[in-house]
# Entry
Amino acid sequence: MKRKTIYLFLIGLALASCSKKEAFEGVRVDERLYAQLAAYEAQLVGADHGWLGYLYPAGGGGYTFRFVFTAENRVTMYAAMNADYASSAKESSYRLRATQVPSLYFDTYSYLHELADPDPAIGGGPAGVGQQSDFEFAILSATTDTLRLKGNLNDSELVLVRAKEGQGDDYIRHAYAYNRQLDQLNRFPHYHNRFSIAGQHYNFTINTDMNTVSFYSGTDGFRGFHSAYAVKDNGIVLRTPFVDGDVVISELTDFEIDAEAHVATVNSAGTTATIVNEPDPLVVDKQAGRQMYIRPYNYTTNQGFTVNGQKDALGLGSIPGFIGAQYVPRRYVDGYDGFTIYFDQGAAAYTAVLNTRIEDDGRMIFHNYIGGQGLRPGGDHDATIGRTLGLLLEPQGYYVYQTGSTYFDLVSVADARVWIRFY
Amino acid sequence: MKHTKYSLIPILIGALLSGASFSCSDKEPLPSDPILGLGGDDWVWSELDEYLYQHFTLPLNIEVKYKWDPYEVNFNRNLVPPDESQVIPVMETVKSVWIEPYNTVAGEHFLREYQLLKYVLVGSAEYQNNGTIILGTAEGGNQITLFVVNSFTTEDSNEVIRMMHTIHHEFAHLLHQKIDYPQEWRGLSTEWYTATWFNTTDAQANAQGLITAYAKAAEREDFVETIAYLLVEGQDAFDAVVAANPSVAQIFRAKETLVVDYFSKLGVDFRALQKAVKAGIDKITSADETHMYH
# Structure
């Protein structure tokens, strides 16, 4: 009986095996994938005026590019990274590749790659890491005029926006120049700028070295916000919009800066905001100093103290081969911190060994300067270093404002006309 | 009777099954459409692609990859692709200081027999967690990855020597991966091999009978460093190191002899190869741009 069942089953199997499967109808995965890549390429190539690219490296900051893609896998770019790159184009290659997500590769070196270069002498940042930017990007979403991309290695963000007529080869040069203009806001006498929009007031800071903006408000305790921005030829676009109740700021355009009266106006989506330079802050950030101190990071400044609107007022830049200064918390194993001035193109350095104290009211106070290590530049330059250290060791200390994930401004408690920017 | 009845059933099933297999036979032709993406990445060829094809792929079956491909390199490191303008100077140097000397001395068959399939060019160095940087790697006996292509310049002979040292170093790896280095090499410097070779300076390594600090990394590294040094830095530089370290001179000379013997067993006159490499370096470092590209 049992055997009979098995035979019956086998017969059934034999019959069933003859039933023919229906042929696959539809488009195979590979074909769809290649069609999608071709569509992306056609979209990139098809933009008459190229694309504006807003790149936000994972390491911070924001940079504006203009790309023109050709059907021959070539791309020409301008970059608002420095005056040269903003005004002269560089050609390199690109291709679209089917990786886990269809990706755009900038596959030979160009301006964009400097931000990703692990050599600190080229792109800055720590050795082996650089600015943590990307040059292979997964295409996350695409509409006719906007592509959103994410870096495959470091998760940097790239937004490509179809350029309009008039946003031609000189667009990046204008955008770069515009950003330089905005630096006037950092030449107002006091550090604090009050930003007023729709009845709300904030302290406002713009860091044109690293391209970040920050807003502080104190209406219900301290609240701080900072975002990278990318430059346009008439303003800036924030990576993360600033939202506070009804106030939403995603772009700031048409800055009108009155360098004499120390006021400015700016347009945010049709609403005019005013910026007024003031001696006192609306609010003090009591936590920023501690956050700055506990982070293992070498804080760099390339222009020393700003006093009364004058950058590098103490003249660190006059030391031969001065390339910057660094504040390094816990520089030494016994808990001493270091403030190092690098000169002679980095071949020589003088480090002041000191302690840092952070008060409950948020003040950061440098004290207990026990002496220096390394070489002094000699002559009058020793006096320059002495004056810089004297200001740093100001007994009332500094209020700290955060302008980026690792960027901090220190503002003298005694006099808000004295401040220094670290990043 | 009963027995026969049952034995018929398997025969019946057998017939059914064979019939089924005939009726299922598919008469449709194989698809004639080419498989998508076969042959790898594709792009519009530039003059540079044509140059690489004519000078490396066609004669030697070597692929030169200069466009970024994350799967050719350490995927979790920050690296950058080479600048296009650097590719020809680098590959011309490879041609003059590696390919031509071997072709002249060992015959054109040699590089086809001990074949290298691929050069991968990377713009930056690869930074290691221990603070060292990687300038070149060889993989599986068929691929060399060259780093720091973007800072290469033929105007600086030290830079040419640095890069060509890397290439001859890596190619020597390919050779010993096919024919192992002599047994006699074992024991010459065994006590000095260490994973923390980078804590030694070149001068300290020389005093221990090793030609560079990296030669301390392992026996096989010692072997290929000695070959690369003799070829690229040259005999004079080698002799100078030996003269400066008389207490280990016999170790250096023993290694030199083993290298020369190893190459003669491959059918290569090592002394002639040294001269040809030197001539290649002289040609590259003195060449002006105009005849570089032919």
Summary: Confidence is low (pLDDT under 50) at residues 289-294 of chain B.
